[in-house]
Records
---
Amino acid sequence: MCRILEATKTLCLPLPPGYHTLLSVLGVRCLPRHTFLQYVDHGVLQLTEPFVSRLMTDLDNSDANEELKFSILKRLPESMEQRICHLWDHPISSACISRDYVRGLLEKHAKTKVTLSYSASPGFRPEFLPLTFLTKILLDVEDRALNPFEEQENVDARFVEETALKQTLILMGFQDK
């Protein structure tokens, strides 16, 4: 199949629909993982959206399969990664969804240019003024922003918020992984 791919490239002939998906499926099933990933890196195999979405849903979350899924996610373009991330029920994909959600809220806030005061509310500790200010911005933006997950039925906004908070605590060293 690689020779067919090489011959069609040199002759500038079109490939049938689904050829790259079929070649990738054969590659992941028949080749050792490091060889498969090298072929992807060198452009011999292309990661198509049907292949990656099928791979994310078909493989279980064993250690070897998680490693393969991470390796494939790192090699995806950002636009495809955002669509594929929703298919994998894993804390890393939940963190990715949470980061995208917060990034969207902050971008929306930056467009509106709302000014907030630095005074701390009773529920926050005043010694962490930057954190208090960021929290107020996020609360204000969340109150005014439209929820981007309303269109999608399978995303729980509360779960995304809890995951984002847990990831923040882990990154700041307040909680173990």
Note: Residues 54 and 87 are 9 Å apart (CA to CA).
---
Amino acid sequence: MSESKELTYSDVSEHTSKKDLYLVVHDKVYNCSSFVDEHPGGEEVLLDVGGQDATEAFEDVGHSDEAREILEGLLIGNLKREAGDPAPTSTGPPSSTPGKPQSASDAAGLGIGVYAIILVGGALAFFAYQYLASSSQNKS
């Protein structure tokens, strides 16, 4: 494995078959030929992105740490970008805002907001009931 090896999109695009399959993930080039039959998602998934930038497809699935370690073992070099090459599809894990990594607080923000609304609504209903109950007792 020579991480200093640089390949262009043109080089990578020539490797699209099951026995000769290169993928680009985060501007690194991986030879996935030996892993096609072992891929838990099936060989079709890899063949669909063979010879291309597979960053978005890889991150959208939410691969485990073990999958990322396997990927590192398949590394053969870096992508050398040239004029006319497609722009990178993603620079990090999937997020709700492009270019901004999703944090746990962003993902839980709506859930906490809903609980806050329910809590405030419940408190208002309780105090309204108490007020109306005391008003009806004063009139009797």
Note: Confidence is low (pLDDT under 50) at residues 94-101.
---
Amino acid sequence: VCGDQNQGAVFLREFTLIRRESLHDDFLSDLLNNHKTEDPSSRTARSEEDRDSLWDAWGSWSECSRTCGGGASYSLRRCLSSKTCEGRNIRYRTCSNVDCPPEAGDFRAQQCSAHNDVKYQGQFYEWLPVSNDPDNPCSLKCQARGAALVVELAPKVLDGTRCYTESLDMCISGLCQVRREALLCHFC
């Protein structure tokens, strides 16, 4: 067995695996609604293992969620049967694992500042990130500059946002995913 048996995904150098039963309906809906229709010829060839199962080949990888600082990319596959297929229909891999230039700033701070030009309770604020929330590290909580006002501006941060400032763990679809680069496992 490869990776952790806890709920969620384990980040691996090449792929992250998510238990099918841990996927939320809104997560799959978001992926399917944002996934581009692709030419069937762009799908990877079915492996020997896939030919013996009820799965189609894995689709191409999505664009990375970030251009630097570490992000996530996903690939989907379809069940070819009217019955339930064993295994996962989505896989992840890390991408854009190069440092961002210092002037790029903090990714969570960028997401907060994107709300600076949107009125909150009738007025504009300059929003600063609230990091390291132990209860929900993947929600976008921001504090108004110079005020005690802390607001959840979005239920989830963008994919690739670090869960905690001093960690490589990252948020994927609103869930903190453990990142373990020492492991390598394609299809556990």
Note: The longest helix spans residues 25-34.
---
Amino acid sequence: GCLPGRLALLPLALLCLLVLALGLPVLGAPPRLICDSRVLERYILEAKEAENVTMGCAEGCSLGENITVPDTKVNFHHWKKSEAGRHAVEVWQGLALLSEAMLRSQALLANSSQLPETLQVHVDKAVSGLRSLTSLLRALGVQKEAVSPPEAASSAAPLRTVAADTLCKLFRIYSNFLRGKLKLYTGEACRRGDR
């Protein structure tokens, strides 16, 4: 009597195993997955690889327009003195802006026939990586920390931005953002969570 019911669950169980094996659902990921340095290092490596590929293309693979991206410069002295809420705002806004920039470059590349397909693959990976990182940071609580203290949000300086007009510059900024502000913030947030 129970066998048909169990067989009905088999496709669902197989789907869950497949999805887990592929590592796709970051939404169901443990909240502290980003605290495993190997996870962030994988995204950094992908960004650096894309940056290296675009360095070799003619004229830095022009995007044909300026795309606004976060300024990745970090004043370490100022960073250490400022509050975690301010860091969260800066990282969250920077990630959102980078996501918009990658999506825009993805659209521009889709309309361009002269750029190699390998560049499209790197942009697609970056779009996917930014979505995953956003989910991982949401699981860590950065979104709540970025919006919870109203005084931190009102006193936070507006996000500094720069313009990227080539894929090379876009990927350099993406790589620097991950290696800089994002890595600093996640390191702090993970240490706070360990206490």
Note: The longest strand covers residues 62-70.
